[in-house]
Amino acid sequence: MAHLLNTSFASSSQTFGGTPISHRHSSFLVAGAGSTSRLRPRTRAFQESFNFNGVEVVKRPLLCASTFSMGQTLWLISVPFAQASESIKYNAVYEEQVRSGDASATEYFELGAVMLRRKFYPAATKYLLQAIDKWDGDDQDLAQVYNALGVSYVMTGKLEKGITQFETAVKIQPGYVTAWNNLGDAYEKKKEFKSALKAFEEVLLFDPNNKLARPRRDALKEQVDMYRGVPVKSKVKSKEGDFHALSINTKLVPLVF
């Protein structure tokens, strides 16, 4: 369905439109280099590459990687899109099927993916939820819908909901490294560094050479080790009023509030 037939993934080290992807900040993807996911797509094959409103889409047989740039974070989402020259036509067909009530779960997903690429996140969320509600296909394919929904939530600031979708995706498909990468990035944004570290370590269990997860794992491991042993902040009462104090620690370490 959504992103791979022969597990021929878009490498995280390749360039999109001549611009290298930053490994340090790259995240939120649906197909990563060396993924062990065994999803079996069922939609039409795609062949070419095009750029739409600054969103680079790389097309291969049943593989489409779309990047969303937001701040310093690069979100990579692999989704099935229509041929560039016929995208408007296909979108109109999907929308008409939705209006008539004849849209399948796959068509809801494809329309949601189009809305996601266009950054119409509320619409993307709506269609992806409908795809999940109507789903009658393989659970491994369904994991991709949850992953895309997670990205849509996070892009609209609903970080907790996004995390829930990524966790659902990896529960359905434990070897889904791109959802693990997304989960790690979401936890890092939430400043839950131990959980982020665990997610990136899961990626490397399935794909030891994953170029997105390895530098993130290394940086987080160093950070978690540095903050280990920092005392819990406690509230202390004084004559001057309430204030927060830290117990004295012989090892000076930076604190994050």
Low-confidence sequence ranges: 1-27, 30-76, 78-86, 231-257
Number of domains: 1
Name the structural class. alpha+beta
Which percent band covers the strand fraction?
15-25%
Give the overall average pLDDT. 65
Based on the structure given, which CATH architecture is correct?
A: Alpha Horseshoe
Tell me the CATH topology. Answer: Serine Threonine Protein Phosphatase 5, Tetratricopeptide repeat
CATH class wording: Mainly Alpha
Assign a percent range to the helix content.
40-55%
Strand sequence of the main sheet, in spatial order?
3-7-6-5-4
Shape: elongated
Report how far the terminal alpha carbons are from each other. 43 Å
- How many beta-strand segments? 9
What is the assigned CATH homologous superfamily?
A: Tetratricopeptide repeat domain
Report Rg.
20 Å
Q: Count the helices. How many?
A: 8
Largest sheet: 5 strands, mixed
Keywords: TPR repeat
Pfam family, one: TPR_1
InterPro entries: TPR-like_helical_dom_sf, TPR_rpt
TPR repeats: 143-176, 177-210
